[in-house]
Design goal:
By secondary structure, the chain is an alpha+beta fold. The chain has a single domain (5-14, 23-96), classed as Alpha-D-phosphohexomutase, C-terminal domain (TATA-Binding Protein), CATH 3.30.310. 49% of the residues lie in helices and 24% in strands. It contains two helices and three strands. Strands 1-3-2 form a three-stranded antiparallel β-sheet, covered by helices on one side. A hairpin with a 2-residue loop joins strand 2 (52-59) and strand 3. Helix 1 (24-46) runs antiparallel to helix 2.
Length: 98
């Protein structure tokens, strides 16, 4: 089967202006947050789905998710699911920080 549609999702944690004055600890926090997001998303990206192939990569200060799908509507559904997973995981991690 050939996949006609491809998209890449890149997730980066961007520092707020307030974060720059708080020292090295913030860099560690951003990396830990990104790594936690990666580990939360990895099982979903590696799960076997019909008509879809996806992969995830943690690269320094970003997460890269690649999605290949046979049908554009399937790709859209998978992309929306990943966006929702990222949002929920990020919110949960930010809340648990306090």
């Amino acid at each position: 089967m050939t996949y006609d549609n491809h998209t890449t999702v890149e997730v980066s944690i961007i520092k707020d202006d307030e974060d720059t004055d708080e020292g090295e600890g913030k860099d560690d926090h951003h990396y830990l947050l990104l790594r936690s997001l990666y580990h939360a998303l990895e099982p979903e990206c590696k799960a076997s789905m019909k008509d879809v192939r996806s992969s995830i990569l943690l690269d320094n200060n970003r997460i890269i998710i690649s999605i290949d799908a046979y049908d554009i509507s399937v790709m859209r559904a998978v992309l929306n699911s990943y966006i929702r997973f990222i949002s929920v995981a990020y919110r949960a991690l930010e809340v648990s920080r306090f």
